Amino acid sequence: MRRTSKLTRVAVGVASIALAATACGGTSSDSGSDSDTSGDAKGLAIAYDIGGKGDQSFNDAAYAGLQKAQKEFGYQTDDVEPTEGETDADKEQRLSSLARQGYNPVIGVGFAYGPAMEAVAKKYPKTTFGIVDSVVEGSNVASLVFAEEQASYLAGVAAAKATKSNTVGFVGGVDIPLIHKFEAGYKQGVQDTSGGKVKVVSQYLTQTAEEGGFSSPDKGKAAAEGQIEKKADVVYQAAGLSGQGVIEAAAKAKVWAIGVDSDQYKQAALANYKNYILTSALKDVGGAVYALAKSVHDDKPLTGTQTFDLKVNGVGLSESNPEFAKISGLSDAVAKAKEGIIDGSIKVKTE
Q1: Which pLDDT tens digit goes with each residue over 98-144?
Q2: CA 318 distance to own-chain centroid
Q3: DSSP 264-308
Q4: What are the strands of the beta sheet with 106-109, ordered from one edge?
Q5: How many beta carbons lie within 10 A of that of residue 230, not counting itself?
């Protein structure tokens, strides 16, 4: 039977991990037999999702968790980039290589690692594996999942309070169930806060990740420009690297952008646009990565579904931009909504 639990606050702190400057991750070759390594154990290794390191969002948050673990535990780590047009077999080879080299835990960043993770975990039963944004069955697998809809609801509350045109936008990277959670929560937050007076214009960039929905800033920019033409003056993006284009377009038009996953107001690569990043819907991927690494280091490896929600500060909303506090009623409305979600009086939709 699969064990399901919610992590305690000890390992989780939204926005508490500062994202580091980006650099290229190393790559590993696959060699040897499909069995657990007998060499000295190494520490955490992560395999990036589409967009790789430098997305100022999802992947960079995972890297921040790796850096925190590396600094605290003083062990060897590795982080590996994806390749364009790769297959499940490529992902399987990447995870196998890391496990064979002795890294523990090995984390696949993103739901796309699901099939590969299921296969590789069986081959390396002594290694703890983690997967972000997906549930994979396995006695040595921790599925690190988030209540994205809750953070997105708060983003919707903020958008409804900030809009002057009564039109706001949502840009999703890929039309898949995971991103539907972001849209659903956002729309509900907007509607609940405005009493249905604010219109939400939504667009998905691609139908599949292979088409570049999470890795094409130009697509994000074009989508945001289209929504701004329709009078949207707040645009929320859940689009990975493509979200940088959304933020650029919003800043150029001098309207609000809402970031995702990391506190994008603080990202050096987005410094030119920061004044127009109202807030970010936070998803503590770094905290989840660190939590799994710590559990293995403490010889108490987490397995099963680990859920990060508002109750454990696994998701949230940033308030770094000073303008956030200046918008009438915004901070109070967000605080009230957060309290309602936590106590159960607000049920946030996922679809």
Answers
A1: 999 999 999 999 999 999 999 999 999 999 999 999 999 999 999 99
A2: 14
A3: GGG-GGGGGGGGGEEEEEEE-HHHHHHHHHHHHHTT----EEEEE
A4: 4-6, 304-308, 141-146, 129-132, 106-109, 45-47, 78-80
A5: 11
Q: What is the pLDDT of residue 85?
A: 84
Rg (CA), the chain: 20
Q: If we measure between CA atoms, which residue out of 264, 240, 248 comes closest to residue 59?
A: 240
Assign 39 a pLDDT band (cuts: 50, 70, 90): very low
Check if the beta carbon of residue 348 is closer than 8 Å to that of residue 336.
no
Q: What is the pLDDT of residue 41?
A: 58
Q: What is the DSSP string of 77-104?
A: -EEE---TT--HHHHHHHHHHHHHTT-S
Q: What's the pLDDT at 278?
A: 98
Could you tell me the end-to-end alpha-carbon distance of the chain, in angstroms, rounded to an integer?
27
pLDDT in tens, 59-95: 999 999 999 999 999 999 999 999 888 999 999 999 9
Mean pLDDT of 5-9: 42
- Both structure tokens of 200: 């939400």
Task: State residue 117 phi and psi, 5-degree precision.
Answer: -60, -45
Q: Two tokens at 34?
A: 């499909």
| Residue 182 to residue 155: CA distance in whole angstroms | 10
- Say how far apart CA 92 and CA 328 lie, in whole Å: 51
Q: Are 158 and 233 a contacting pair, CB within 8 Å?
A: no
Cα 104 from chain centroid (whole Å): 22
> For the segment 308-329, what is each residue's pLDDT rounded down to a tens digit?
999 999 999 999 999 999 999 9
CB atoms within 10 A of CB 232: 27
H runs (alpha helix) in the chain? 58-73, 88-100, 114-123, 148-162, 177-194, 217-229, 243-253, 285-297, 330-343
346 with 340: CB under 8 angstroms? yes
